[in-house]
Hints:
Layout: E1 8-13, E2 19-25, E3 28-34, H1 42-60, E4 64-68, H2 78-94, E5 99-102, H3 104-112, H4 122-136, H5 145-160, H6 166-184
Amino acid sequence: MNELNKxxxxxxxxxxxxxxxxxQSRGDGFIDTIEPDKTAPHMDRLNYIYKSVRELICKTxxxxxxxxxxxxxxxxxxxxxxxxxxxxxxxxxxKNVPFIEIVPATWKSATLGGRGxxxxxxxDRKYLAERVNYLYNTDFNHNxxxxxxxxxxxxxxxxxFSRSTDGLIKINDQLLAAIRGINRG
Length: 185
């Protein structure tokens, strides 16, 4: 049984361009994106993300949020990743919502059996969608890469309850601590 089905879980894959969103509540859920206007000034885009995350928290009444942790090998976009990640964490903090972070390499390994798959070309994205659809009986298309990422982070959290591999133990510990906090609150 999926232990997380007892909770309303919001998953966000933060990005300045297009953040993937996945929400699961007791077996029902939805996918979405947060997409600021690409032509807007940088600070306006960050503000849009901040407001969107707060709106999602209010809309879903989530018990827990899962976000992608900072990628250790992100080159050239470290400041942007830090800003976007900080904005998302600030919104969660101000709404007093517990969250855990999953390192990209961990969720990619746990769900796709490796370091992830390339997403640069349409052909790459189509293959990724086919693979995710095959493995998880879903219906993603190649234009939903960010939504797939947030869905796969949720699947990693689910798997952490049933597997005891090193990367998933840390996630399981974070989830259990967050859930204890939810149950106490």
